[in-house]
C-alpha cells in the first residue's frame, strides 16, 4: 500500500489509473479506523480495481465547541489495518494543504443540511460536502461509499452528486454494530463503563420503533414518545433529537408512509452518538 500525503501526487496517480482504464473506488474517513470503516473498504473493493481510503480530520465540519483537537488518532494502526485489507492507497493530506489561507469556497446542499443533525450543528454538513467535493476532485473516484450509520450524510452526498452532475456512483454500506447493538463509532472511546452500558438503549429504542411500525402504528408522535421514554430512563443519556423523516428529502412525517428513516442523536457524557434505522411502511 502506498501512503500519499501530497495532493498533486494523488491527482497524478489517479490520472494514471484512469488512463489505464482502472475503476477507482473511494472511502473517505476521518481515521481511527474501526470495523465500520473496514466494512466499507471491503464493499468498495468488490466494485472497483483500485481502492483509495482517505484519512483526514476535517476542521471545517467541527463547531467551535466540538472535539476537533481531541478527535482520536492512530495513523500507524490505521495504516496497518488498511494494509491487511490490501488497500492500494491511503491518502493522508495535511490540513494546511487542503485549506491554504485564505480559503473562501464552500459547497452546500442547503435544504437537507439544516434538519436532523444539522439543527444543532450549523455548518457541519457544509463542511462535509465541501471536503467531499475537494476529495472527489483529487481522488477522482468512479465510485464512493458512505456508511448508513451517518444516514443524513449519505442522503446529502447523493443529492450533491446528482445536483452538481458529478460523475460518481455513491453507494451506502450497512451500519456495523457491536454485539449488543451499539453502532460502532470512533467516538465510543469517550464512553465510561456506565455510559457504554446505557448507550445500548439507542439501538433498543430503534428496534422498538421498528416493531411498532411493523405492528401497524403510523403515528410518528407515539413512536417518538415511546423511544424518548426508553432513552430517558437511562441516567447518563441526554437526548438531542428523535426524528422520523422520509428517506429522500428528510421531511418530518407525522403520519408514517413509504420508506422512513428513524434517526436520533443523544449525548452520553462527552460523546455525542447518532444512530438510525430505515423501515418500510
Ligand atoms: P468517519 O470517519 O466517522 O467520518 O466515517 C467515515 C465513513 O465510515 C462514513 O461514511 C461513515 O458513515 C462510515 N461509518 C462510520 N461508522 C460506521 C458504522 N458503524 N458502520 C458503517 N459505516 C460506518
Descriptive report:
With 281 residues, the protein is an alpha/beta fold. The protein folds into two domains: 2-173, Rossmann fold, CATH 3.40.50.620; 186-276, Pantoate--beta-alanine Ligase, Chain: A,domain 2. 37% of the residues lie in helices and 21% in strands. It is built from ten helices and nine strands. The strands form two sheets. The protein has a six-stranded parallel β-sheet, sandwiched between helices. Strands 7-8-9 form a three-stranded antiparallel β-sheet. Helix 6 crosses helix 7. Adenosine monophosphate (AMP) is lined by residues 29-30, 36-37, 39-40, 146-147, 149-150, 173, 175-176, 183-186.
CATH architecture of the largest domain: 3-Layer(aba) Sandwich
Rounded Rg: 19 Å
Strand order, largest beta sheet: 1-4-3-2-5-6
- Are any ligands bound, and if so which? adenosine monophosphate
CATH topology of the largest domain: Rossmann fold
**Structure annotation, total helices:** 10
Percent of residues in helices: 25-40%
What oligomeric state do the depicted chains represent?
Answer: single chain
Overall outline: globular
How many angstroms separate the termini?
45 Å
| Uncertain stretches | none
Helices and strands in order:
Elements lengths: L1 E3 L2 H13 L4 E6 L5 H11 L4 E6 L19 H10 L4 E3 L3 H4 L18 H4 L3 H16 L3 E5 L3 H13 L5 E5 L19 H6 L2 H14 L5 H13 L4 E10 L12 E10 L2 E10 L1
Helix pairs in contact: 6-7, 9-10
Amino acid at each position: 500500500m502506498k501512503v500519499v500525503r501530497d495532493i498533486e501526487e494523488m491527482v497524478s496517480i489517479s490520472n494514471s489509473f484512469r488512463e489505464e482504464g482502472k475503476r477507482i473506488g473511494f472511502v473517505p474517513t476521518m481515521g481511527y479506523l474501526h470495523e465500520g470503516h473496514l466494512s466499507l473498504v471491503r464493499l468498495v473493493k468488490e466494485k472497483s480495481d483500485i481502492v483509495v481510503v482517505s484519512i483526514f480530520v476535517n476542521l471545517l465540519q467541527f463547531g467551535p465547541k466540538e472535539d476537533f483537537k481531541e478527535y482520536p488518532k492512530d495513523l500507524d494502526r490505521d495504516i496497518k489495518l488498511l494494509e491487511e485489507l490490501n488497500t492500494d492507497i491511503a491518502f493522508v493530506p495535511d490540513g494546511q494543504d487542503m485549506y491554504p489561507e485564505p480559503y473562501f469556497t464552500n459547497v452546500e446542499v442547503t435544504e437537507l443540511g439544516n434538519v436532523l443533525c444539522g439543527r444543532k450543528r450549523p455548518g457541519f454538513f457544509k463542511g462535509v460536502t465541501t471536503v467531499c467535493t475537494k476529495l472527489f476532485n483529487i481522488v477522482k473516484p468512479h465510485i464512493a461509499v458512505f456508511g448508513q450509520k451517518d444516514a443524513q450524510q449519505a442522503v446529502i452526498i447523493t443529492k450533491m452528486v446528482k445536483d452538481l452532475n458529478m460523475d460518481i456512483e455513491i453507494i451506502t454500506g450497512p451500519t456495523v454494530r457491536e454485539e449488543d447493538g451499539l453502532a460502532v463509532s470512533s467516538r465510543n472511546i469517550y464512553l465510561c463503563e456506565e455510559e457504554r452500558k446505557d448507550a445500548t438503549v439507542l439501538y433498543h429504542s430503534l428496534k422498538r420503533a421498528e416493531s411498532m411500525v411493523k405492528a401497524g402504528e403510523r403515528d410518528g408522535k407515539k413512536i417518538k414518545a415511546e423511544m424518548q421514554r426508553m432513552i430517558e430512563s437511562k441516567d447518563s443519556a441526554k437526548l438531542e433529537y428523535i426524528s422520523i423523516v422520509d428517506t429522500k428529502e428528510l421531511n418530518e412525517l407525522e403520519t408514517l408512509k413509504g420508506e422512513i428513516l428513524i434517526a436520533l442523536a443523544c449525548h452520553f457524557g462527552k460523546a455525542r452518538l447518532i444512530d438510525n434505522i430505515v423501515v418500510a411502511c
